[in-house]
Amino acid sequence: LLGQFYYFTVHVITNYIHMKLSCMGDSITNGHGLDSKLRWTSLLASRLDIEVSNHGVSGDTTGGMVGRFDYMLRSEQPKYVFIMGGTNDLSFGLSDSLIISNIKTMTRQARHLGIQYIIGVPSTYYPSNDANLYEINVDEFVLRLKGLQARLKEFIQIDQCASIDFSYGLQRNHFLEDGIHPNASGQVIMAEKSIEVIREIYY
């Protein structure tokens, strides 16, 4: 029993010490509008004492993420990668199928390099009175976002991969005035959800 306990303790401590998580996404991943210390990725890194790099780019589409994904993986060589996107694609009227295809492309690139991936389901949108999108109106965007969240959950279930679901648990008061970017309190909730998943992976 003592030997088993020793192995378990060393295994867990070693994994945490060497854990490196790279996060690919858009402004939701980036923590748009907030100091870097308040972002959910920074809170996650601090709470679990792991290395987390944030590659969220405001306004980026999943197509843009695919374009910079391979370089990120090969330059950082993380053990884990987090992937979340699609909200900007929707604002341009792009299809759910294209979004899922791009996300699948990134997951397969990660798998090819032996990197475990975690898919994020984007948070809900609470449109402000002056909301302005690109190709579609606000009401259509809200419906499309709900549909994308459902499609992502279906993909996650079929793929049997790890995931972090931000589509529930955040209320209107957890967002900035624009209704789409989580505020400081929203970042805390995102971090807590992420911590639960990371702990499940390691224990």
Question: How does this structure look, described?
Answer:
There is one protein chain. This protein is α/β, with parallel strands linked by helices and about 200 residues long. The protein is about 55% helix and about 15% strand. The chain has helices spanning about 1-20, 25-30, 40-50, 60-75, 85-90, 95-110, 140-160, 185-200, and strands at about 20-25, 50-55, 80-85, 115-120, 160-165. A five-stranded parallel β-sheet has the order 2-1-3-4-5, with helices on both faces. Helix 7 links the parallel strand 4 (about 115-120) and strand 5. Helix 3 crosses helix 8. It is globular. The two termini are about 20 Å apart. Residues about 1-15 have low confidence and may be disordered.
Over the alpha carbons, how many angstroms does the gyration radius reach? 17 Å
Overall shape? globular
Low-confidence stretches: 2-16
Give a quick account of the main beta sheet: strands, pairing sense, barrel closure: 5 strands, parallel
What's the SSE pattern? HEHHEHEHHEHEH
- The number of helices is 8
- What is the SS-derived class? alpha/beta
Q: How many beta strands in the DSSP annotation?
A: 5
Mean pLDDT: 89
Outline of the structure:
With 203 residues, this protein is an alpha/beta fold. The protein has helices at 2-18, 27-30, 40-48, 62-76, 87-91, 96-112, 138-159, 184-202, and strands at residues 20-25, 51-56, 80-83, 116-121, 162-165. A five-stranded parallel beta sheet has the order 2-1-3-4-5, with helices on both faces.
Architecture blueprint of SSEs:
Layout lengths: L1 H17 L1 E6 L1 H4 L9 H9 L2 E6 L5 H15 L3 E4 L3 H5 L4 H17 L3 E6 L16 H22 L2 E4 L18 H19 L1
Parallel strand pairs: 1-2, 1-3, 3-4, 4-5
